[in-house]
Amino acid sequence: MKIAIYPGSFDPITKGHLDILKNASEIFDKVIIAVARNGEKKCFLTVEERVKLIKESVTDFDNVEVDSFEGLTIEYAKKQGAEVLIRGLRAVSDFEYEMQLSQTNSALCSDIKTVFLTTKPKYNFISSSTIKEILNNGGDISKFVPDCVHEYLVKNR
Ligand code: ADP
User: Fold this and answer.
1) How far, in Å, from the CA of 45 to the mean position of ligand 1?
2) Is the CB of 146 under 6 A from ligand 1?
3) Which residues contact 76 (CB under 8 A, 6 or more apart)?
4) What is this structure's pTM?
5) Among 5, 45, 136, 143, which one is most buried in terms of CB atoms within 10 A?
6) With bands split at pLDDT 50, 70 and 90, how would you rate the model's confidence at 41?
7) Is the backbone of residue 42 left (phi > 0), alpha (psi -120 to 50) or beta?
8) Cis omega before residue 12 (within 30°)?
9) Confidence category of residue 157, pLDDT binned at 50, 70, 90
10) Separation between Cα atoms, residue 32 and residue 102, nearest integer Å
11) 114: Cβ below 6 Å to ligand 1?
């Protein structure tokens, strides 16, 4: 059984994340989408809100689980019996950071490989930070996030 972890902030989950997740779920037997509890990063939504919104967004996938974790991603992956980390690539600007992260993880644990996936072009430009910016300025985010995320953010933020 090939298990992959898709770690990230998902602050909030977007249609870009979901497209990566869909591709990953077609390749691997099980995918765990896991919200990183990162003390240093200032987030817009709580971990609990992010997990709840992800759970509501992934009901169509039967081999996807939702979780959160603290500490090193590779330690979490080992605990889950996963051999693969999924990360997404949008543009060249993601490349440097993602390459550094994957090589650091590989130096820490060579058994766990990072697999990079891309989205359909129509989701490629979407980022959680742009969504927050649009929302804070009263714009319409409905095209960029799952319906449940749109409803929740309009009601609660
Ligand atoms: P992090 O804080 O770990 O970067 P994010 O939630 O911002 O967490 O992103 C998680 C992963 O999903 C990253 O690898 C990021 O590059 C990828 N990603 C986010 N949005 C998109 C998108 N629209 N297309 C492709 N990859 C994406």
Assistant:
1) 16
2) no
3) 5, 7, 34, 69
4) 0.97
5) 5
6) confident
7) beta
8) yes
9) confident
10) 18
11) no
